[in-house]
Amino acid sequence: MELKRVGVVGCGLMGSGIVEVCARSGYDVVVREVDDDLLKNGLGRVEASMRRAVERGKLSAPDMQAARARIKGTTKLADLGDSDLVIEAVVEKMELKKDVFRELDRLCPPRTLFASNTSSLSITEMASVTRRPQHVLGMHFFNPVPVMKLVELIRGLQTSEETMATGRRFAESVGKTVVVCKDSPGFIVNLLLVPYMLDAVRALELGIATREDIDTAVHLGLAHPMGPLTLLDYVGIDTTYYIAEAMFEEFKDTRYAAPPLMKQMVLAGMHGRKTGRGFYEYKS
Ligand SMILES: NC(=O)c1ccc[n+]([C@@H]2O[C@H](COP(=O)([O-])OP(=O)(O)OC[C@H]3O[C@@H](n4cnc5c(N)ncnc54)[C@H](O)[C@@H]3O)[C@@H](O)[C@H]2O)c1
């Protein structure tokens, strides 16, 4: 199946990155946000990211113009009705994702493929609210999407081989390397990453070291590009908290239990870079 039109639900951190890579790869993209202000912010993020790519010589100015012309923003899910593929990138909450897919199933023709960018939640469960479970797969991009080369493709219990093959061709066509994973909480990367990030928060909570020293230790001692608390601020404390909660719910293993400090930060609106404050402070 040839894909031409891509719908993206959510233009947050991940949705905006997905919109950008699709448009830069020649797809027509319609992106839906919940209201006009969020849509403006999201499209502003796409614009700023493409400008940075031009400044760094990664994208030509005419290619940026062409990509921009392929992107349409909307607040109506119905405008995604003639998509060949819809990628969902709303907040990491199962009920919300199911609502989105239930509604899309009503709006889109049977041929449309549905992908979720979930970090941890079950694809099989999302597929269960549609009449096309064979056409539903996980397509997990990484942040920042234009830079990070990996996509995890997740096979739900009923995902067809054809859907997996089309998903792979699509992810490769937007410049990504694909790994395939079964529908298991956290897939490959978050299965390994989440306990590590939670342990870093526990170390801070216990007063084992300062935030700076925890980050410096990992950065220099393990040669990671950044320490775990800086990484948490990039990913989003809220998003990581929801991922941990979902994984804990599935595994019932305390390795995935979010430390109290994370919950407090979520409630206090300290979500990391996107809100200007997380483990560190950021100027907008
Ligand atoms: N942040 C990361 O590093 C990362 C990486 C890979 C995957 N993900 C996954 O991508 C998805 C989105 O995460 P994000 O980091 O872009 O979050 P974000 O907070 O930046 O964006 C969340 C999006 O959800 C939308 N939303 C919020 N409430 C809604 C509602 N009631 N109805 C419909 N839409 C609603 C928002 O408008 C926004 O577009 C999540 O499933 C997350 O697990 C995140």
3D architecture notes:
An 8-stranded mixed beta sheet has the order 3-2-1-4-5-6-7-8, with helices on both faces. It has helices at 13-24, 36-55, 61-69, 94-107, 123-127, 161-173, 189-205, 211-221, 228-235, 237-251, 260-267, and strands at 5-9, 28-32, 71-74, 85-88, 113-116, 136-140, 150-155, 177-182. Strand 1, helix 1 and strand 2 form a beta-alpha-beta unit. By secondary structure, the chain is α/β, with parallel strands linked by helices. It is built from 11 helices and 8 strands. Helix 1 crosses helix 2 and helix 7 (189-205) crosses helix 9. It folds into 2 domains: 5-182, NAD(P)-binding Rossmann-like Domain (Rossmann fold); 191-274, N-(1-d-carboxylethyl)-l-norvaline Dehydrogenase, domain 2, CATH 1.10.1040. Helices cover 46% and strands 14% of the residues.
